[in-house]
């Protein structure tokens, strides 16, 4: 049985190849984790939302801000290579400045 599964090969710092200003799609769904790819262009804003699981966010390319808290009062600058984590249930969003490519992992319980 094969133990390693290649999900994708990403070139850090590459330009976003999306025609839409906001694009999100699931690239992996397993029993204990889900991985999403999110692309924001042209200063797009990912509106406030929350996840019921803890998450990590890795900035693959671009620049922007990650916001968290009930009023999105906490701010973390994102640039290529920035990796952050957030506990479950915390409201959050993101702003591209001008473009942002993110890899988000949700960690689920058994």
Concise description?
The chain is 0% helix and 55% strand. It contains no helices and 7 strands.
Write the layout of secondary structure elements.
Blueprint: E1 22-29, E2 33-40, E3 45-49, E4 55-68, E5 74-79, E6 83-86, E7 92-107
Antiparallel strand pairs: 1-2, 2-7, 3-7, 4-5, 4-6, 4-7
Report on the structure:
This protein has one domain: Jelly Rolls (Sandwich), CATH 2.60.120.10. Strands 1, 2, 3, 4, 5, 6 and 7 form a seven-stranded antiparallel β-sheet that branches. Helix content is 0%, strand content 55%. The mean pLDDT is 94. The chain is mostly beta strands.
In CATH terms, the superfamily is Jelly Rolls
Number of strands: 7
pLDDT averaged over residues: 94
**CATH architecture call:** Sandwich
What is the CATH topology classification name? Jelly Rolls
Radius of gyration: 14 Å
CATH class: Mainly Beta
| Parts with pLDDT < 50 across at least 5 consecutive residues | none
Main β sheet profile: 7 strands, antiparallel
| Topology as a string of helices (H) and strands (E) | EEEEEEE
List keywords for this structure.
mainly beta; Jelly Rolls; globular
């Amino acid at each position: 049985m094969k133990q390693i599964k290649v999900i994708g090969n990403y070139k850090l710092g590459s330009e976003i190849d999306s025609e839409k200003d906001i694009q999100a799609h699931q690239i992996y769904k397993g029993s204990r984790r889900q991985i999403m790819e999110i692309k924001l262009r042209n200063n797009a804003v990912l509106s406030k939302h929350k996840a019921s699981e803890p998450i990590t966010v890795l900035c693959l390319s671009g620049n922007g801000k990650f916001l968290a808290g009930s009023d999105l009062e906490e701010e973390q600058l994102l640039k290529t290579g920035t990796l952050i984590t957030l506990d479950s249930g915390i409201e959050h969003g993101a702003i591209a400045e001008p473009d942002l490519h993110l890899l988000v992992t949700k960690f689920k319980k058994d």
